[in-house]
Amino acid sequence: MTTFESVVQPKSKLWLAAIKPPMYTVAIIPITVGSAVAYAQTQAIDLNILGTFLLSAIAIIAWLNISNDVYDSDTGIDINKAESVVNLTGNRNLMFWLGNLFLGLGITGIATISWWQQDLTVVEIVLLSCFLGYSYQGPPFRLGYQGLGEIICTICFGPLALSAAYYSQTQSWSIANLLASLVIGISTSIILFCSHFHQVKDDLAAGKLSPIVRMGTKIGAVVLKWSTASIYALSAVGVASGLFPVATLLIFLSLPLAIKLTNFVSEYHDRPERVRTCKYLAVRLHFASGLLLAVGFYL
Ligand SMILES: C/C(=C\COP(=O)(O)OP(=O)(O)O)CCC[C@H](C)CCC[C@H](C)CCCC(C)C
Ligand SMILES: O=C(O)C1=CC(=O)c2ccccc2C1=O
């Protein structure tokens, strides 16, 4: 079906939107922060493990996004999504197997880390996060259609991802890392939360009860404000409790991005054609706040 976007936008722009390079911050930041916490506590870092983990995480996110388009094509929810790789290629099964290839590459990389450590813990954690990621969008679960995506996202990109990264460096656990994982998990879920504001009509048509469908865009804008504020409150608690180095207060340099995001959504929450870009403001906030937190642990 030719939609307005595919008529107006050239294929090259649609493919860039389909690949969505900025979105890969969600793979890079949790591994970087978890490894930074490990460095702060051990003064050591295994760069081979870090590099392998980062590449593996990127492959896993590629699977996540390709398979999202595959499973969403089965429900018809992406009928107006010109940048869906299934709509762009017209070949669902090819995209299904391409996604599985990326998943296999990612899991192989993580399994290599476990082999190096002679310890299955890291690969077990990542396999669990991949299963939860599948349960968000794949049959018969499709938990995202019940509005559970943000909870799953916080758990996977927070405690699970950072614990796996921390364990890959130390083969141990850390309370400070767990607190840092809540910051990253929430900032990652804010990206997902923001992605729903412009999709209320299509989500309702497909029976997807996203948090924004459930609470409405006005309350959603208020929830976004409190969620965004919580990443700074948690960071302040980390420093006040002595779990975080004082340098992690660097995260507050990202506050202007947080204010820009929340003000933008407050103004345009009920205008889909405008609010659709807020996801990328959330990506910028996630990347900046996560990177500043990591730098604060490295210093
Ligand atoms: C694909 C995701 C959201 C897009 O969903 P939606 O269909 O609403 O978007 P479109 O409108 O663009 O179609 C992300 C969903 C995230 C999921 C809840 C949790 C995924 C967990 C990962 C597999 C964990 C990876 C950990 C890695 C860093 C080691
Ligand atoms: O395409 C998207 O909207 C998202 C893709 C993605 O990989 C991701 C990961 C973590 C949180 C949100 C999102 C997306 O919104």
Explain what you see.
This protein has 299 residues and is an all-alpha fold. It has one domain: Farnesyl Diphosphate Synthase (Orthogonal Bundle), CATH 1.10.600. The protein has 15 helices and no strands. α3 packs parallel to α8, α8 runs antiparallel to α9 and α13 runs antiparallel to α15. The radius of gyration is 19 Å and the shape is globular. The N and C termini lie far apart (53 Å). The N terminus is likely disordered. The ligand C/C(=C\COP(=O)(O)OP(=O)(O)O)CCC[C@H](C)CCC[C@H](C)CCCC(C)C binds next to α3, α4, α7 and α8. It catalyses: 2-carboxy-1,4-naphthoquinone + phytyl diphosphate + H(+) = demethylphylloquinone + CO2 + diphosphate.
CATH topology name: Farnesyl Diphosphate Synthase
Which small-molecule species are bound to the chains here?
ligand LFCQNMSN, ligand LXD6PMIU
> What is the 3D form?
globular
Strand percent estimate: under 5%
Average per-residue pLDDT, rounded, comes to: 95
Distance between the termini: 53 Å
Order of helices and strands: HHHHHHHHHHHHHHH
CATH class: Mainly Alpha
Helix content: over 70%
DSSP strand count: 0
Biggest sheet character: none
Number of helices: 15
Indicate the structural class.
mainly alpha
- Radius of gyration, CA atoms, in whole angstroms: 19 Å
